[in-house]
Amino acid sequence: MGESGGGAVDLVVPTCVGALHVQRVGSGPAALLWHSLVVDSEEWARVLPALVRHRALIMIDGPGHGASQPPPSLFTSAQCADAAMTVLDTLGVADADWVGRAGVRGSAWWPPRGTPTGSGPSRCWARST
Questions:
Q1: What is d(CA 129, CA 121) in angstroms, rounded to the nearest whole number?
Q2: Domain spanning 3-103: which CATH class is it, in words?
Q3: Among 4, 8, 9, 70, which is most buried by a count of CB atoms within 10 Å?
Q4: E strand or H helix at 49, and its extent?
Q5: Which distant-in-sequence residues (6+ apart) come within 8 Å of 127 by Cβ?
Q6: With b meaning 16 or more CB within 10 Å and e meaning fewer, what string describes 22-39?
Q7: How far apart are the C-alpha atoms of 24 and 31, rounded to whole Å?
Q8: What 8-state DSSP symbol labels residue 125?
């Protein structure tokens, strides 16, 4: 698992789905938190105190949400996965657990490193909870 120092980071990362606002807090194994539609990373506020005790949390405001810029065009789930990987690369995080929400069911997308997710059928996996 990726490890992170405890210092808080607040930045904007250029990605294929636009410039995304990213916050990183805590230390330990990395967990990337991607919110549900029509909200932003504030969605995690109630669970943040419990999670940050054990993890380096990387919270992303999705395209057009929170402090992120509007996307330059329509985008796919696979492009969001690519954008998340760009964020991790920018932060120097080699691996992270994905915590995500979509509507009323949880979901996660995670392409293997080096997988071209922008063409053909998505090679990402999804899990509903």
A1: 23
A2: alpha beta
A3: 4
A4: helix 48-52
A5: 106, 107, 108
A6: bbbbbbbbbbbbbbbeee
A7: 10
A8: B
Per-residue pLDDT of the chain (129 residues; tens, 9 = 90+): 344 455 688 999 999 999 999 999 999 999 998 887 777 788 888 888 999 999 999 999 989 888 999 999 998 888 888 899 999 999 999 888 888 766 433 344 555 454 444 433 333 333 333
CA distance 2 to 28: 8
DSSP state letters, 53-106: TT-EEEEEPPTTSTTSPPPSS---HHHHHHHHHHHHHHHT-S--EEEEEETTEE
**Longest CA–CA separation in the chain, Å:** 40
With tokens 């509007």, the residue in question is 70
What CA–CA distances, in Å, run from 43 to 14, 36, 95? Answer: 22, 8, 23
Q: Given the structure tokens 């990183």, which residue do they identify?
A: 24
> In 3-state terms, what secondary structure has residue 24?
strand
